[in-house]
Design goal:
With about 240 residues, the protein is mainly α. It is built from 12 helices and 2 strands; from the N terminus they run H-H-H-E-E-H-H-H-H-H-H-H-H-H. About 70% of the residues lie in helices and about 0% in strands.
Length: about 240
């Protein structure tokens, strides 16, 4: 049997504080409780708390001010990629518009990496799409296939920045995908996309693939708005 090692106190504390910041327990612009009180609330030692706060400050969550209370930063404006990773891992706490913002970024990025992948490695793209034969009509299978397709397209594009970005939001992508593909309408929409992308790739037509992906991503965003606007995705 494989046992999952328990979280270290510092890791558990960091996770709790990030969750409290995201869910508004400690709103942006406010001060955290004093070191002694916060350590007591969290059930940890003050040295452990200092270590955690240093890491949170490095990633843009808080600002440590000498002789003054630690301030919670506006992490949407002052954070970095580590903040994006953390937010993606806290799907139950993110505001509804975050998913829509993420979809907007995908509309901008995916046509670019899709075209590059089709132009640079058409046979590899076809190989991925051939797995459609084994795709079951379930939300779980569609979410898994869609993630694999987009992640592989970023790799095949030859630009690792695309891959780093999409990998950073994998946790949220899986949650969103699982909810999105619960609807037969969305699965049918994506199935049509996969088949059309196969046609573009077979013809090695990167320009057509780019136009197709942009249209499909916009339609997917509209379907998300239709079925999930203002809904807690973690609630299913």
């Amino acid at each position: 049997m494989m046992w999952t090692p328990p979280e270290k106190p510092s890791e558990l504390t960091e996770n709790r504080l990030v969750t409290a910041i995201i869910d508004g327990t400690f709103p942006a612009g406010t001060n955290l409780p004093g070191e002694r009180d916060l350590a007591a609330q969290l059930g940890i030692t003050r040295p452990t708390l200092r270590t955690v706060l240093q890491r949170l400050a490095r990633d843009g969550w808080v600002e440590i001010r000498q002789g003054k209370p630690t301030r919670v930063r506006n992490y949407w404006e002052e954070g970095n990629l580590a903040v994006l990773v953390a937010v993606a891992m806290h799907a139950s706490s993110v505001p509804p518009d975050f998913v829509q913002n993420l979809l907007s970024v995908r509309i901008l990025m995916s046509p670019a990496y899709g075209r590059l992948a089709v132009e640079r490695n058409p046979q590899e793209v076809i190989h991925i799409l051939q797995d459609l034969e084994n795709l079951k009509d379930s939300a779980e299978d569609y979410a898994r296939f869609d993630w694999k397709l987009h992640q592989k397209l970023t790799i095949l594009s030859g630009n690792p920045v695309f891959t780093l970005f999409i990998n950073s939001v994998q946790g949220l992508y899986e949650v969103v995908g699982g909810a999105y593909f619960c609807h037969p309408e969305t699965r049918a929409h994506s199935l049509g996309f996969y088949k059309s992308l196969m046609e573009c790739t077979s013809q090695k037509d990167g320009e057509a693939a780019q136009a197709l992906i942009e249209r499909i991503m916009r339609e997917s965003s509209e379907l998300w708005q239709k079925h999930f606007k203002n809904r807690n995705i973690a609630a299913g």
